[in-house]
Design brief:
The protein is of the alpha/beta class. The chain has 4 domains: 2-112 and 245-312, FAD/NAD(P)-binding domain (3-Layer(bba) Sandwich), CATH 3.50.50; 127-241, FAD/NAD(P)-binding domain (3-Layer(bba) Sandwich); 333-447, Enolase-like, domain 1 (2-Layer Sandwich), CATH 3.30.390; 452-540, Rhodanese-like domain (Oxidized Rhodanese, domain 1), CATH 3.40.250. The chain is built from 14 helices and 31 strands. It is globular, with a radius of gyration of 26 Å. It starts with a strand and ends in a 7-residue tail after the last helix. The relative contact order is 0.09. The mean pLDDT is 96.
Length: 542
Amino acid sequence: MKIVIIGGVAAGTKTAAKLRREDPSAEVVILTKSKDISYAGCGLPYYVSRVIPERSQLFVNTPESFEALTGAKVYNNTEVTALDRAAKTVTAVCEGVETIHSYDKLVIAVGASPIRPNVPGVELENVFYMGSPEDADALKAAVDGGSIKRAMVVGGGLIGLEVAENLSACGVKVSVIDIAPQVLPNLLDAEMAGYVENCLAEEGVMPFTGVGLEGILGETKVEKVQTSKRAMKADACVLALGFRPNTGFLQESGLEMIRGTLVVDGQMRTSDPDIYACGDCAIVSHRLTGERRWSAMGSTANICGRIAARSIAGKEVQPHPGVLSTGVAKLPGINMGRTGLTEKEALALGMEVETVVAVSDDKAHYYPGSNPFIIKLIADKASHKLLGLQVLGKGAVDKITDIAVVALSMGATLEDLQYCDFAYAPPFSTAIHPFETAVNILLNKLDGAYETMTPAQFAAGAAEDYKIVDTSIAPALPNAPYIQLTEVNGEIEGYGKDEKLLLVCNKGRRAYLLQNRMKFFGYTNTKVLEGGTTFTPSLLEE
C-alpha cells in the first residue's frame, strides 16, 4: 500500500512515523512545500527572544534523519498543486519540475499560514509574521540588529500576545491592537480577559481593543501603523491576525470543506474515504457540544495524525472524541490556561449555568514563590456537570487546566471532583488543592450558602445600591466602613438587618466567613464580591 502525505510538520510527520510502526511494509511518501520538516512552530516566538538560544533546537528531525529513523521518503521543497481523485494522483512541483505521484491512501496535512491582510503597506520593510522558522529568523535578525525600538503587534490572540511578550523581553516597547472588544476573544470571558489586559499594561505591553488595522505607513520601512483610531508610531509591525488553511489547491476537488478546512470524521477521513486530513487544515468537533470546531494546535495535530495512521493501517481505532479548545500560554506578567466552554459560549448554546471566580494560593502561602491562582469555573446549574475552566496566575496554570481537561473528558460533576486525592506538599500545592477549593466554593454557591456578586456583575454596575464593606484582615479599602470578622458576635451597630451590603476582602474567604456569621445573626441581604481585591484591585485606589 502506498500512502502519500502532503505536509511535513506536526500532523504529517506524526502520521508517517506511526504508519511505519503500524505497517512496516507500507510505502510512505511525504511531499512538503517547506525546506524543513518536523519543526516546533509553537516555539518560534521564544527563539526571537533567545529563550531558545539555538535555531537547531526548534527542529526534531531533518528530512534525512526522519527518513533514516522511520523509512518514510521525504521530498521537501515540493509543492502539491493539484489533486485528481479519480486517478488517485497528486501533481507536485519542485524547482520548476512537475511530477505525478499516485496513491492508495492520501493524507492532507498542509497546515495553515498567517493571514496577510489586504491593507496598504504590508510589503514595507519590518512587517513580520510568525508562522515559519524563516518568519522567526527575520524578526530575530531585526531585533538583534537594534533597528526595532517600538513594535506594533496586530492581533490579541495567543500568537500575538506571545510575540508581544518575547519582544518586550528584548527591550522593545510593544503595543497590541485587536478589533475585538477584548484580548483572547475566543478563549476567555470578558472579565478574565480584562484582568489579562491589566497585567499586560503593568508589564509595559499596551493593549488597545476595539481597534482595527487600516494600513502601515512609511517610505520604505515601517514608520507608523494606521489604526481605526489614529496613526501610531512604530519601527516594526507584526501581523498576528490568525491563520488560514493551506487548502487553496483543493477548491475544485469536491472534498467537503468549511471555511477552507477539510471536514473529517472520527477517524480523520474526509468525504473521500481514501483521503484523510489532520492538523491545522482539518476541522474536527467539540467534545462537549458536537459542533464543528477548528483546533489549530500542535497537540491536536499529533493526536489526529496518530488516529489517521492507525485507521489507514487497518487497526481498530477509537474515534476522535473531539477537542475541548484547551489552551495555555505564558503572557507578559501572567500565565493563562483554559478548557471547555466559556460562560459566554454556554449561554449562547442555551445552557443554564452557574459560575464562580475563586482565588487561592498556588502553593503553601508560607513557601517562597507562592502566588495566587484566579480560577473561573463554569458548571451546569441543574446537573452540576463541569463545563469549563479558565485560570490565571504566575504559577503552573497548566496543572489546573489539565485537571479540568480530564474532568470534562470523563463528564464529571462538581461532586465527583470534591474529594479527589490531589498531590500535596508545600512546594507544589496547598493542603486543599486550588482546583478543589474552587469546586467547593462553587458548590457552596449552588447550595445557596455563598451568596455573591461576580466581578462581571460588579463591573456592570450591580453594586450601585450596595454599601461596600471592607472585611480584610486590616482596613484596606479607602472610604469604606470596616468590619473585623473576629469581633462579630451578634448584631453589628450601624448596619440594618435588610441593608444591601457588599462584603469585600483580599480573596473572598474572609468576606464569606463574615457573611456566614452575619446570616446567623439575621442579616438577610449580604453579597460577597468574588475574587475580592485580588481580581478587582481598583477598589484599593483612592
